[in-house]
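[recover] target loaded
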Protein backbone atom coordinates (compact mmCIF):
# COMPACT_ATOMS: atom_id res chain seq x y z
CA UNK A 1 0.00 0.00 0.00
CA UNK A 2 1.34 3.39 -1.01
CA UNK A 3 0.23 6.68 0.56
CA UNK A 4 -0.13 9.45 -2.01
CA UNK A 5 0.61 12.73 -0.21
CA UNK A 6 -0.61 14.89 -3.11
CA UNK A 7 -4.12 13.47 -2.87
CA UNK A 8 -4.09 12.63 0.84
CA UNK A 9 -5.21 9.03 0.40
CA UNK A 10 -3.95 5.53 -0.03
CA UNK A 11 -3.30 4.38 -3.56
CA UNK A 12 -4.78 0.87 -3.58
CA UNK A 13 -5.21 -1.19 -6.76
CA UNK A 14 -8.84 -0.44 -7.63
CA UNK A 15 -9.69 -3.62 -9.50
CA UNK A 16 -8.77 -5.96 -6.62
CA UNK A 17 -10.81 -3.87 -4.17
CA UNK A 18 -13.83 -3.85 -6.48
CA UNK A 19 -13.66 -7.62 -6.97
CA UNK A 20 -13.43 -8.27 -3.21
CA UNK A 21 -16.40 -6.00 -2.44
CA UNK A 22 -18.47 -7.67 -5.17
CA UNK A 23 -17.54 -11.11 -3.86
CA UNK A 24 -18.47 -10.11 -0.28
CA UNK A 25 -21.83 -8.73 -1.45
CA UNK A 26 -22.55 -11.95 -3.36
CA UNK A 27 -21.72 -14.12 -0.32
CA UNK A 28 -23.93 -12.04 2.00
CA UNK A 29 -26.84 -12.17 -0.47
CA UNK A 30 -26.43 -15.95 -0.80
CA UNK A 31 -26.42 -16.36 3.00
CA UNK A 32 -29.70 -14.44 3.34
CA UNK A 33 -31.27 -16.36 0.45
CA UNK A 34 -30.29 -19.68 2.04
CA UNK A 35 -31.60 -18.58 5.46
CA UNK A 36 -35.09 -17.78 4.13
CA UNK A 37 -35.18 -20.89 1.92
CA UNK A 38 -34.42 -23.19 4.88
CA UNK A 39 -37.12 -21.58 7.03
CA UNK A 40 -39.63 -21.48 4.16
CA UNK A 41 -40.54 -18.11 5.65
CA UNK A 42 -42.60 -15.65 3.57
CA UNK A 43 -40.91 -12.29 3.28
CA UNK A 44 -44.20 -10.41 3.79
CA UNK A 45 -47.49 -11.57 5.27
CA UNK A 46 -49.59 -10.49 2.25
CA UNK A 47 -49.18 -11.60 -1.33
CA UNK A 48 -46.14 -12.84 -3.15
CA UNK A 49 -43.34 -10.34 -2.63
CA UNK A 50 -39.82 -11.31 -3.48
CA UNK A 51 -36.40 -9.85 -4.07
CA UNK A 52 -34.98 -10.87 -7.43
CA UNK A 53 -31.36 -10.72 -8.51
CA UNK A 54 -31.58 -10.66 -12.31
CA UNK A 55 -29.37 -12.89 -14.42
CA UNK A 56 -26.70 -10.86 -16.17
CA UNK A 57 -23.93 -11.27 -18.68
CA UNK A 58 -20.93 -8.92 -18.60
CA UNK A 59 -18.50 -8.86 -21.53
CA UNK A 60 -15.39 -6.70 -21.65
CA UNK A 61 -13.73 -5.96 -24.99
CA UNK A 62 -10.82 -3.71 -25.93
CA UNK A 63 -13.25 -0.84 -26.60
CA UNK A 64 -16.16 -1.22 -24.19
CA UNK A 65 -18.05 -3.13 -21.51
CA UNK A 66 -21.38 -4.71 -22.46
CA UNK A 67 -23.96 -5.83 -19.91
CA UNK A 68 -27.16 -7.76 -20.66
CA UNK A 69 -29.77 -8.37 -17.96
CA UNK A 70 -32.88 -10.54 -18.16
CA UNK A 71 -35.89 -8.68 -16.78
CA UNK A 72 -39.00 -10.64 -17.84
CA UNK A 73 -42.35 -9.00 -17.21
CA UNK A 74 -40.82 -5.54 -16.91
CA UNK A 75 -40.53 -2.58 -19.25
CA UNK A 76 -38.13 0.35 -19.51
CA UNK A 77 -40.22 2.54 -17.16
CA UNK A 78 -39.78 -0.01 -14.33
CA UNK A 79 -35.96 0.05 -14.44
CA UNK A 80 -33.31 2.45 -13.05
CA UNK A 81 -29.63 2.26 -14.02
CA UNK A 82 -26.78 3.97 -12.15
CA UNK A 83 -23.10 3.97 -13.08
CA UNK A 84 -20.89 5.41 -10.35
CA UNK A 85 -17.53 7.07 -10.83
CA UNK A 86 -15.97 4.55 -8.43
CA UNK A 87 -16.72 1.70 -10.83
CA UNK A 88 -20.09 0.14 -9.99
CA UNK A 89 -23.12 -0.47 -12.20
CA UNK A 90 -26.44 -0.83 -10.38
CA UNK A 91 -29.64 -2.06 -12.03
CA UNK A 92 -32.76 -1.62 -9.92
CA UNK A 93 -36.49 -1.78 -10.44
CA UNK A 94 -39.86 -3.16 -9.47
CA UNK A 95 -41.97 -5.81 -11.15
CA UNK A 96 -45.71 -5.46 -10.78
CA UNK A 97 -48.19 -8.02 -12.07
CA UNK A 98 -51.89 -7.88 -11.30
CA UNK A 99 -54.54 -10.34 -12.56
CA UNK A 100 -58.19 -9.73 -11.68
CA UNK A 101 -61.25 -11.72 -12.70
CA UNK A 102 -64.86 -10.86 -11.87
CA UNK A 103 -67.86 -12.96 -12.85
CA UNK A 104 -71.28 -13.87 -11.39
CA UNK A 105 -70.63 -12.83 -7.79
CA UNK A 106 -67.15 -14.27 -7.79
CA UNK A 107 -64.01 -12.21 -7.48
CA UNK A 108 -60.46 -13.45 -8.00
CA UNK A 109 -57.28 -11.42 -7.69
CA UNK A 110 -53.70 -12.59 -7.97
CA UNK A 111 -50.80 -10.22 -7.54
CA UNK A 112 -47.11 -10.70 -8.01
CA UNK A 113 -44.57 -8.10 -6.96
CA UNK A 114 -40.82 -8.15 -6.86
CA UNK A 115 -37.93 -5.79 -6.36
CA UNK A 116 -34.91 -6.36 -8.57
CA UNK A 117 -31.43 -5.15 -7.79
CA UNK A 118 -27.99 -6.07 -9.04
CA UNK A 119 -24.70 -4.25 -8.53
CA UNK A 120 -21.72 -5.17 -10.67
CA UNK A 121 -18.10 -4.05 -10.41
CA UNK A 122 -16.80 -2.49 -13.61
CA UNK A 123 -13.24 -2.29 -14.91
CA UNK A 124 -11.18 0.89 -14.56
CA UNK A 125 -11.13 3.66 -17.19
CA UNK A 126 -14.70 3.57 -18.45
CA UNK A 127 -16.46 6.63 -19.88
CA UNK A 128 -19.67 6.81 -17.82
CA UNK A 129 -20.86 9.92 -19.70
CA UNK A 130 -21.25 7.91 -22.91
CA UNK A 131 -23.15 4.98 -21.40
CA UNK A 132 -26.13 3.79 -23.47
CA UNK A 133 -28.98 1.46 -22.52
CA UNK A 134 -31.69 -0.25 -24.58
CA UNK A 135 -34.60 -2.38 -23.42
CA UNK A 136 -36.14 -4.89 -25.85
CA UNK A 137 -38.38 -7.90 -25.15
CA UNK A 138 -37.48 -8.13 -21.45
CA UNK A 139 -33.72 -7.82 -21.99
CA UNK A 140 -31.80 -4.74 -20.87
CA UNK A 141 -28.58 -4.06 -22.80
CA UNK A 142 -26.04 -1.54 -21.50
CA UNK A 143 -22.94 -0.42 -23.39
CA UNK A 144 -20.23 1.50 -21.54
CA UNK A 145 -17.31 2.63 -23.72
CA UNK A 146 -13.77 2.68 -22.41
CA UNK A 147 -11.80 5.90 -22.30
CA UNK A 148 -9.09 6.54 -24.92
CA UNK A 149 -6.54 6.13 -22.11
CA UNK A 150 -7.81 2.61 -21.37
CA UNK A 151 -7.50 1.67 -25.04
CA UNK A 152 -3.88 2.85 -25.06
CA UNK A 153 -3.01 0.72 -22.02
CA UNK A 154 -3.82 -2.49 -23.88
CA UNK A 155 -0.76 -4.02 -25.44
CA UNK A 156 -0.74 -7.38 -27.15
CA UNK A 157 2.29 -9.55 -26.64
CA UNK A 158 3.22 -11.93 -29.42
CA UNK A 159 3.96 -15.46 -28.25
CA UNK A 160 6.99 -17.08 -29.87
CA UNK A 161 7.72 -20.76 -30.28
Amino acid sequence: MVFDKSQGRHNLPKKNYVNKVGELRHNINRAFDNFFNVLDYPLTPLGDFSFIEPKVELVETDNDVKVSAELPGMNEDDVEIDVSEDGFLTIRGEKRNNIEEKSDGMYFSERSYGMISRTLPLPNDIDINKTEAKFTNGVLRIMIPKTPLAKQKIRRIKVKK
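[recover] notes: The longest strand covers residues 88-103.
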